[in-house]
Amino acid sequence: MAALRCAIPNPVPSSLGHLLQRNLEWAANLRARRPDFFLGATEQQTPHYLWIGCSDSRVPASDVVDLPPGEMFVHRNVANVVVHTDLNFLSVLQFAVEALKVPHVLIVGHYGCGGVRAAYQGKPLGLIDNWLRHVQDVAAKHHALLERLPDDGAREDRLCELNVIEQLTHVARTTIVQDAWRRGQPLALHGWIYRLHDGVLRDLGLEVDEPGKFDKAYESAIAALTPPA
Prior knowledge:
- The protein has 229 residues and is of the alpha/beta class.
- The protein has a domain at 67-208: Beta-carbonic Anhydrase, Chain A (3-Layer(aba) Sandwich).
- It is 47% helix and 15% strand.
- It contains 10 helices and 5 strands, in the order ααβαβαβαααααββα.
- The chain has a 5-stranded mixed sheet with strand order 2-1-3-4-5.
């Protein structure tokens, strides 16, 4: 039997040809800087970090920490929400922790998050309202704290911060993370937030690498975000 041929002799020009051209230029520039990069990239990936972030196009995970391809395993969704019944998220987390053995999980939100703003304002948007209900739960839990702030802008920013902390809590409580800690596997969770106006990441002061440290670290992080009465 003759071998099948998959080549397309006269491909139809793509309407996104400019992106394909940019890809060629990017690959050529990377090869010029690191001639062996793509040879190594064909091997098993060995990232050091799992980034759990927002889908917002203004927050490119690897770029904002200046890491090359292969260093960051990434999961993104609207408003960087962690839901214990989300099999997509759980599969990413399990693969990162148990197969790739990443030592660091970063939960990263950002100021000006459209999902957090929509949750705070409570305006109906359709299907996504069910997803943003999780952020509204964070707002309800910290209602008294948010009410101490002077205006809606400050409350939305604080809710972005609180959402990171609460989603990190959800990550810490998964069986995947709990089992890793029980095995003695090195695994640290970090809560960060990104500022769109200057590109700077801020550590929210919640970093946990074993279950016994969590409650105290959580209380300290929340206290740091609580304005004086």
